[in-house]
Design goal:
The protein has about 350 residues and is of the alpha+beta class. The protein contains 10 helices and 13 strands. The strands form 3 sheets. Strands 1, 5, 7, 8, 10 and 11 form a 6-stranded mixed sheet that branches. The longest helix has about 35 residues, at about 40-75.
């Protein structure tokens, strides 16, 4: 396949993935391009402002240096045979010039350090308001585990209210405090329009925060190479109105109703008869696995496999038949289900709303 056809196929695949997102979130604007020059959250705006100042300073330096080079090249260009036989003046050492090209760069460097340090300090030393939303994000190969803190927890105490995966929901214009951890290797949390990159380091807790200015679906990803499927460790942040966010939280904390259709009931039996329960959790059931994503509200999510495919019946069937077909190297094994069992399990998973 030629380069042009390959790019076209990738573009069409991306559009096909975004179509169900737009349909499911028709009232929320999609922001699939992570444009760091269009900040839509308080910390991202602070980083943007510092970056613009740095860019202006560097641009001025570039123009001055380039202008001097052009001037020297034009002023002292060769003027023919007479210049080839003439030795230029031999000038050694100039205290004024040496002081200038030493002191001026030092001053510029100190200014840039002060600008950067002030921004880092303001972001890291921010005050957490009483109405802040608290979540924990744990990076796995290759998906995101997300815990929401139970209301009323004491400062410094963590009690999980409910767990989800790969999609973060937050209210607009409200401070969201995020604790970052890793379950295996180095990862990096990055939603460009909401904040800068923050690493997830095994055995260490890092912190970041966002305060979105507008509603919408923001696209992020892991920004630290973490293995085979690093590129498919995607993340979505749904910024909602306070009312929509409160309704979403209530729905997430309420166990899904038991399946009613015969195929879904049979699928639940297949799910619990296999090793699925060892890795996945489903609220209100005996499935309490912690090695894979929590499936309690799987049917409400926009994608599966941390963004590798849209969450629909066809892709769920392909995933259950053989996960490595959609995401090579994924740690979920092929359960060797029959076609009938695949249909039944998919019917059950689609009831988890």
């Amino acid at each position: 396949m030629g380069t042009g056809k390959l790019r076209l196929s990738k573009t069409l695949a991306a559009l096909a993935l975004m179509a169900p997102l737009a349909a499911a979130q028709a009232d929320e604007p999609l922001r699939p391009i992570a444009n760091m020059f269009d900040p839509l959250s308080k910390p991202a705006e602070m980083i943007h402002d510092s970056a613009i100042i740095t860019l202006i300073i560097c641009t001025v330096i570039f123009l001055i240096v380039t202008g001097m080079l052009v001037y020297v090249c034009v002023k002292f260009r060769s003027r023919g045979a007479i210049d080839e036989r003439k030795e230029p003046p031999q000038i050694y050492g100039s205290s004024q010039i040496e002081l200038a090209w030493t002191i001026i760069p030092i001053i510029i460097t100190v200014v840039l350090i002060l600008i950067t340090t002030r921004t880092i300090g303001e972001i890291q030393d921010h005050a957490v308001p009483a109405n802040a939303v608290h979540i924990r994000v744990i990076g796995h190969q290759w998906w995101w585990e997300i815990h929401y803190q139970k209301p009323g927890a004491k400062p410094g105490e963590w009690i999980t209210d409910f767990t989800t995966a790969n999609e973060i929901h937050v209210p607009v214009n409200v401070h969201t405090e995020i604790t970052l951890e890793s379950a295996d290797v180095l990862h990096s949390f990055w939603v460009a329009q909401l904040n800068g990159k923050t690493d997830l380091i095994p055995g260490l807790k890092n912190h970041t925060w966002i305060e979105p200015r507008t509603t919408g679906v923001f696209f992020g990803n892991c920004a630290e190479y973490c293995g085979t499927q690093h590129a498919n460790m995607q993340l979505k942040v749904f910024v909602q109105t306070p009312g929509d966010f409160a309704a979403w939280k209530i729905a997430q904390a309420t166990p899904a109703p038991a399946p009613a259709a015969a195929e879904a009931i049979a699928g639940k039996q297949v799910f619990f008869a296999n090793s699925c329960v060892n890795c996945h959790k489903v609220d209100g059931t005996t499935a309490i696995g912690v090695f894979g994503p929590d499936l309690s509200r799987l049917a409400t999510r926009m994608t599966i496999g941390a963004g590798v495919a849209a969450n629909n019946q066809e892709n769920l069937r392909a995933w259950m038949r053989d996960p490595s077909h959609l995401k090579p190297g994924v740690l979920m094994p092929n359960m060797q289900l029959t076609e009938t069992e695949v249909d039944q399990v998919v019917a059950f998973l689609q009831t988890l709303k």
